[in-house]
Write a structure and sequence with these properties.
- With 292 residues, the chain is mainly α.
- It has a domain at 25-135: Helix Hairpins, CATH 1.10.287.
- 83% of the residues lie in helices and 0% in strands.
- The protein is built from 6 helices and no strands.
- The longest helix has 74 residues, at 84-157.
- Residues 254-264 and 267-292 have low confidence and may be disordered.
């Protein structure tokens, strides 16, 4: 039982929230005003019905009054002719008509009081309806102005639904533009590296030519390496010879000083002929196991 009450409460709360979201105060005010006009129309119709009934009773009263007056005249004439019995019958009918007239007078007074009450109620209701109409128009104008101001503020702040959709569209366009720019940049890099040349040319890359190119590049490296080794080998004996001469000269000078005799420097080495670069000298024979 408690679960059903909770379900009913949740359903009513959801329905109330949905209705509150869908409700337009201007439409509600217009509907309330329409209902008040319908009620005012019913009250006026009631006043008219009571007035019609009162008028009908008034007509019946007039007829009964005329009939009573006529019967009284007949009774007077009958007495003048010596017909007392006719006069008594006329007076009896007059009494009956008078009794009906008295009842109609009571009913007429009630209808008249009811008509006056309904007339006052109708006037009051008319005043309330007029005041409600003025208030309704004021509230509608205020609500319309507030709604317009809210939409303007939302548009300026960018939080309205329309502006949100526009912002999302702009964001999607920027994302797609960035993606296309990245794709174009990647394709440019692939084309610059030659990765797409075969695909564009419609032919596959020649693997044999690639291998030959790699071997040629390796052969060039080995040749350059052999040249550098030859230069290093050609300059190494000269450095060793210069070092040995220096040591021998120092030893001879020391021996001469010990013996007390003067030191005589050796004759200068024969200079290398000018105009012959070192690179043109014959390269030394490579040792076993060195560059091929």
């Amino acid at each position: 039982m408690g679960v059903m009450k909770r379900v009913s409460l949740v359903f009513k709360a959801k329905a109330n929230k949905a209705l509150d979201k869908m409700e337009d105060p201007r439409e509600t005010l217009d509907y309330s005003y329409q209902r008040q006009l319908e009620l005012l129309t019913k009250v006026r119709r009631g006043v008219a019905d009571v007035a019609t009934s009162r008028k009908r009773v008034e007509l019946q009263m007039n007829q009964l009054q005329q009939q009573a007056n006529k019967l009284e005249d007949q009774a007077r004439k009958a007495l003048g002719m010596g017909r007392e019995d006719l006069a008594r019958a006329a007076l009896e009918r007059k009494a009956s008509a008078q009794a009906q007239l008295n009842d109609l007078q009571v009913q007429y007074a009630q209808l008249q009081a009811e008509e006056e009450k309904l007339t006052v109620a109708s006037q009051r209701l008319q005043s309330k309806v007029d005041a409600f109409r003025t208030r309704k128009e004021t509230i509608k104008a205020t609500y319309t102005a507030a709604e317009a101001q809210t939409r303007i503020n939302e548009a300026f702040s960018g939080i309205s639904e329309e502006m949100g959709d526009v912002g999302m569209a702009i964001q999607r366009a920027e994302d797609k533009t960035a993606q296309m720019q990245a794709r174009a940049g990647a394709i440019d890099e692939l084309m610059a590296s030659g990765a797409l040349d075969d695909a564009v040319g419609g032919s596959r890359r020649d693997d044999i030519q690639s291998e030959l190119d790699m071997m040629s590049a390796s052969s060039d490296v080995e040749r350059e390496l052999s040249r550098l080794k030859g230069e290093i080998t050609a300059t190494a004996p000269k450095q060793l010879e210069g070092g040995a001469n220096g040591n021998s000269q120092a030893t001879t000078q020391s021996q001469a000083q010990d013996q007390g005799g003067p030191y005589a420097p050796p004759p200068p080495a024969q200079a290398q002929p000018a105009g012959i670069p070192v690179s043109d000298l014959p390269a030394a024979e490579p040792q076993d196991g060195e560059g091929s």
